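Lecture notes, unit on protein representations.

Consider one protein chain, 356 amino acids long.
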Amino acid sequence: MIIKKFTYLKEYYERYEKSVSIGSLLFGFILDSLTLQRIDALRENVWIAGNIFLVGLSIILLNRGKGDAQGFWLPNILQFGFGALLGAFFIFYFRSAALVTAWPFLLIILAAMVANELFQKRYARLAFQLSFFYLSVFSFLIFLLPLLLHSIGAMAFLFSGAVSIVAIWVFVNIMKRFAREKFLENRTHIWRLIAIIFISVNVLYFTNLIPPIPLSLKDIGIYHSIARNSAGDYLVSGEEKGLIEFFHLREKVHWSEGQPLYAYSAIFSPGSLNTNIVHEWQFRNKAGEWTTSTRIPISISGGRTEGFRTYSTKYNLSPGLWRVNVATQRGQLLGRKTFEIIVSDAEPALEIEVKK
């Protein structure tokens, strides 16, 4: 009876393999988006580490085992593990990203997710498995080590790269004991793919195209005034917005000469990670180029789920297009707010919003 049910299940899967595969990916992505909340939470990191262990174990068993049962179950367990990992990474990196600059790295993760679905037959190839495995390990270490070291920046990133190389070297040597023939056949491809991934991620990081994970921008806005009440909440005064304003490509700010504007931001940082960010005020000059007017360094403290609230004040403004970049000290962009300053003698209608 059990054998008959197993045979039926296998036949059903083989008949609807593509639909089941896509459904599993979507289910895993939705589940991750609903359950993965804080990047510094123990539960989230245990979940990712557990999937990495599952993937590593599946690779070992898949390449040493023989038989129909292993050939049916292990590739799909491996596929689920990779899908869960890449989905989690995409969600965390997406939350930390300003798409205008970080899209190349997000595209790599998204492409890996698609490849996980389209090329699952290649799971029989050890080089393909190990390249996916290495990308997962490196992506995990990029934000895990800053959490453990309580620091972000180039040194933490370089350390994560070094640890990822040591980790994959150890794993490959374990693989050699269980699948020596397959390893020797794929040895050149394995190290070539790992080298390509390592170099590509480093290039993206040092050109500021990787999000400054584990930091993330929770809120940003341009206001006419900011004050703090006795409860510690921020009271921000912004212009009333009608329905038509939601269809504008950029916010319009009515301004009187001599008056300042305020850039408010709320930035999430893990509880043990206190760092510095920058508010960079830029305007578009007559040549159409963005020119930096002011860079205002700001210290932030970690641990607040809604983000550490802070603001900068800008005088010496002029009409035209402006933007405020919220970035790390080395230039990794967390997010930006683009707006147009319009000269107005009359004070615009304002509404007060409470930022808790």
